[in-house]
Amino acid sequence: MAHLNMKARKEKRLQEQGILGESRTVILTRWTSSIWKLLWVELLMYILCYLAISFIYRYALPPSWQRYFEHLVLFFKSKLTGMPLTFLLGFYVSLVVNRWWNQCCALPWPDTIATFLCGVKVKDEEEEKARTLRRTIIRYCVLSYVLCLRRVSILLKKKYLTIEDIVRTGLVTKNEAARIGEEDNTQQHGVSNWSLPLQWCTQLAEKDANISTSPVYGLLLLKIADFRSNLTTVLTYGHVPIPLVYSQVVHLAVYVYFATCLIGEQWLIRGKGGEVEEIDLYFPIFMTFKFLFFFGWLRVAEALYNPFGEDDDDFALRELINRHLKVGMKIVDKLEDPPQLVKDVFMGQSDPVLIANINNGFAEEIEVEAQKEEIDMGTKEKELEMITISGETEPGV
């Protein structure tokens, strides 16, 4: 029993290390969505260009031309410090990341609507009809979700080329699809009926006597309106990008800077005084790190600029849609009754603690925990004794 408990705690610590979706030990070695995957081709080409220039300088140019090239390198190096690359790129990446996170937070979830629908009290003989209504409202919410994001996501656009593709999924009937329309117009505003299913939701709720007379009716309409408002926000981000001029300035600054580095960061045979340099490493070590940092920064912005694409770090819209449909339907079905009402194990305790509770039969686990603490304390005491003994035996003390 003690061995199983120790094993479970070890597995728990491993899970805690990856609590935000990534283990601390594999961040630098991971390939998917990594800087290595994004930059390895460009970095290889850049280093080859640098080494080609270095080879020409060292073995193809006569001494007089080598000296001229060294003056050129020193001139380029002096001009590199004047480029405000960090400011431009940092502000741009910050803008893109904030935009990405705002879009992520704006994506609506139908869980609250489903929960309010479950709060509507209906008569026993009308439960089946009410269940059908609840499921229809959730289906309409997910349908609007798909129709809206399909206008900004190339992933969903490829999966649902026409409204008939959505009909085949069962998310919309042929009659409903005919009322919505083809939804193939690429114009940004005023031509899409993606919000029509949400309008049907409010109409169905208004016509149903159980919902319209329920205390949660107003809150339900408010949540449907919030669902539509969040989808509109996401759609607006897709229609209003960051100004092209700013993106061009940032990209131009990065490319010009590293084009200048191809000359300005060259290792020289002779320095300013014409004497042979003591250090000549041939390979651009620090420039390689700068390339990874700055171009990695730029690639992060490019990857997050449109989170509705097909990159590794883009939003998993297919999984989200399946999740919303599954969870929403499960909530409104109300097929399972809640557990029987019983007294909890903390009843009567003035200071309840959320560790393995002794009232619930976990005394053995608490004993193992205490033994482990004693072992840890004993190990620390031995280490302190060894440190003390080594300090006493040092010469001159």
Could you name the key traits of this structure?
about 400 residues; mainly alpha
Task: Set out the fold topology.
Layout: H1 2-17, H2 35-60, H3 63-80, H4 85-106, H5 111-118, H6 127-149, H7 154-159, H8 163-169, H9 174-180, H10 196-207, H11 209-212, H12 217-239, H13 244-264, H14 285-305, H15 317-333, H16 363-392
Describe the 3D structure.
The chain has 16 helices and no strands. It has 397 residues and is mainly α. Helix 2 (35-60) runs antiparallel to helix 14 (285-305) and helix 3 (63-80) runs antiparallel to helix 13 (244-264). It is elongated. The protein starts with a helix and ends in a 5-residue tail after the last helix.
Summarize the structure.
The protein has 397 residues and is mainly alpha-helical. 66% of the residues lie in helices and 0% in strands.
**Portion of residues in helices?**
55-70%
Q: DSSP helix count?
A: 16
Question: Regions with pLDDT < 50 over 5+ consecutive residues?
Answer: 393-397
Number of separate strands: 0
Main β sheet profile: none
Oligomer: single chain
On the 0 to 100 scale, the average pLDDT is 81
Report the β-strand fraction as a percent range: under 5%
The sequence of SSEs as H and E is HHHHHHHHHHHHHHHH
Distance between the termini: 50 Å
Q: What structural category characterises the helix and strand content?
A: mainly alpha
